[in-house]
């Protein structure tokens, strides 16, 4: 009976979606609407997603996106909960998920296992990304703010999509009349320094372990009397500006990946090592004005060293009933932060550090520099030992 229903629904999909394209993106079209028959979608190029919809039996899906290297990140709501997409039975009643996310790949994961093999059709509305990925290695470049079309405004939005293992500065603008806008990352946390001309700057920060080598997005939103910092779609912090002024003026030259040598504070980072997929200020993509020689493949180094050897059988943490022969790899980490579950020391190490998730892992961490929140422990720049079964 279930197979018969699947055949009927598949036939219905083919008939209902016949007018829509099936595979390749339009060659020279900036924005497009495309239909796919898989929950794993390779868009072949980096795009800015506008809308998503699923046509199929009633179901719920979590949404993951990928920019490069096959590493997917889950889309989250502003309150930190997973973003969900509901499927619809007919195209006329399709429930669209509206977003503005840079991606090269999309993965839709059913919330319920019984949805895994159900035939669906996925609609994607997107625009080709305005620029290629920028790879910086402690060198910066300048953007002429007037040529870019930036003007003084009472409401401002800065968004940066970045990938790094290091501390660094994304953007620096210091106008002559005292206005200041700085975006940087220190110890895995994003800091935005701003001043609307009152000569008393403010700072807002948020995020944890953002220098883990994965893609992240910061969004600084200024709406006259309020300022918000959103990290990976989640509201991390908010504040109200002080002083009499609310309009932000920009310097004629905005520096990306660096700052002037005479900048007033040594707490501001001086360079950036990593990748940038987008630096958008007031809806203007600043990377589209970058010199051509900064564009290239995104390759970031974790600065890790491995020296593996075999140790005798040892129990896994929190499970003394299991005694296995373990391979232990002392790892010296100089730049990255790592997320670990709050269950006392046991964790999984991602593939980009050389160990696959299917292996049972354990880790022994130094106890200093450990921060606990509701979801996890975060260990900053630890020396640790990782083991997995052999």
TrEMBL record:
Protein name per UniProt: Laminin G domain-containing protein
GO cellular component: membrane
Origin: domain of life: Eukaryota
One Pfam family cited in the UniProt record for this chain: Laminin_G_2
UniProt-listed CDD domains: LamG
InterPro entries per UniProt: ConA-like_dom_sf, Laminin_G, Neurexin-related_CASP
Coiled-coil features, chain-numbered ranges: none
Signal peptide bounds: 1-23
Domain Laminin G, first and last residues per copy: 132-308
Keywords, sorted A to Z: Signal
């Amino acid at each position: 009976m279930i197979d018969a229903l699947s055949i009927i629904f598949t036939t219905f999909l083919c008939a209902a979606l016949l007018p829509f394209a099936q595979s390749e993106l339009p060659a020279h079209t900036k924005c497009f609407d495309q239909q796919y028959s898989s929950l794993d979608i390779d868009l072949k190029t980096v795009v800015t997603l506008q809308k998503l919809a699923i046509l199929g039996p009633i179901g719920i899906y979590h949404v993951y996106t990928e920019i490069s290297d096959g590493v997917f990140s889950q889309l989250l709501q502003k309150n930190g909960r997973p973003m969900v997409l509901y499927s619809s039975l007919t195209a006329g009643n399709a429930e669209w998920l509206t977003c503005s996310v840079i991606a090269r790949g999309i993965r839709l994961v059913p919330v319920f296992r019984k949805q895994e093999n159900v035939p669906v059709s996925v609609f994607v509305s997107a625009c080709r990304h305005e620029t290629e990925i920028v790879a910086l290695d402690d060198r910066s470049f300048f953007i002429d703010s007037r040529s870019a079309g930036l003007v003084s405004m009472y409401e401002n939005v800065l968004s940066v999509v970045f990938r790094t293992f290091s501390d660094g500065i994304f953007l620096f603008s210091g106008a002559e009349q005292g206005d200041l806008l700085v975006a940087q990352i220190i110890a895995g946390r994003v800091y935005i320094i701003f001043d609307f001309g009152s000569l008393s700057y403010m700072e807002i920060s948020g995020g944890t372990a953002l220098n883990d080598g994965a893609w992240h997005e910061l969004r600084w939103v200024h709406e006259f009397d309020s300022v918000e910092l959103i990290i990976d779609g989640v509201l991390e912090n908010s504040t109200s500006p002080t002083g009499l002024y609310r309009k932000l003026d920009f310097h004629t030259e905005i520096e990306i990946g660096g700052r002037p040598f005479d900048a007033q504070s040594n707490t501001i980072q001086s360079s950036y090592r990593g990748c940038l997929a987008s630096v958008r200020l007031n809806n203007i993509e600043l990377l589209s004005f970058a010199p051509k020689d900064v564009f290239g493949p995104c390759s970031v180094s974790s600065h890790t060293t491995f020296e593996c050897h075999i140790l005798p059988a040892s129990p896994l943490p929190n499970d003394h009933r299991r005694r296995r022969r373990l391979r232990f790899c002392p790892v010296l980490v100089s730049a990255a932060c790592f997320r670990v579950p709050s269950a006392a020391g046991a964790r999984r190490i991602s593939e980009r550090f050389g160990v696959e998730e299917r292996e049972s892992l354990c880790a022994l961490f130094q106890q200093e520099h450990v921060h606990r929140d509701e979801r996890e422990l975060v260990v900053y720049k630890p020396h640790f030992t990782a083991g997995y079964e052999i």
